[in-house]
Design brief:
alpha/beta; five-stranded parallel β-sheet; 5 strands; Oxidized Rhodanese, domain 1; globular
Length: 112
């Protein structure tokens, strides 16, 4: 299975937000970036902590990995595969949170 499947924000919005397809939205940015702006429903596990926190990532449905612009999320997808997640679909959200916000879609901000 490939490391990840590229996923445009428009497609994510349609498939996972509007159609409510089950998935785990993994945000691999720093805590500071996550607090500033995040896609609703995202769970933050910073990239540098991900190898030690793989147990927190469910494997019973698709995983969508997101970062600021789509680069660290590729690395996050690679960490997931290297960590043994071989049978689950992993998507990389192209353009990341930045593209989501630029589209004008709702986002959360501030401390949880």
């Amino acid at each position: 299975m490939s490391q990840y499947i590229p996923l445009e924000v428009d497609d994510y919005h349609q498939q996972f937000t509007q159609e409510n397809a089950p998935h785990f939205l993994l945000d691999v940015r720093t805590v500071e970036e996550f607090v500033e702006a995040r896609i609703p429903g995202a769970i933050n596990i910073p990239l540098d902590e991900l190898p030690d926190r793989l147990i927190e990532v469910p494997t019973d449905h698709a995983i969508v990995v997101v970062c600021r612009s789509g680069v660290r999320s590729i690395m996050g997808a690679q960490v997931l595969r290297a960590g043994g997640l071989q049978t689950v679909m992993i998507y990389n959200l192209e353009g990341g949170t930045k593209a989501w916000v630029n589209k004008g879609w709702p986002y959360d901000s501030g401390a949880e």
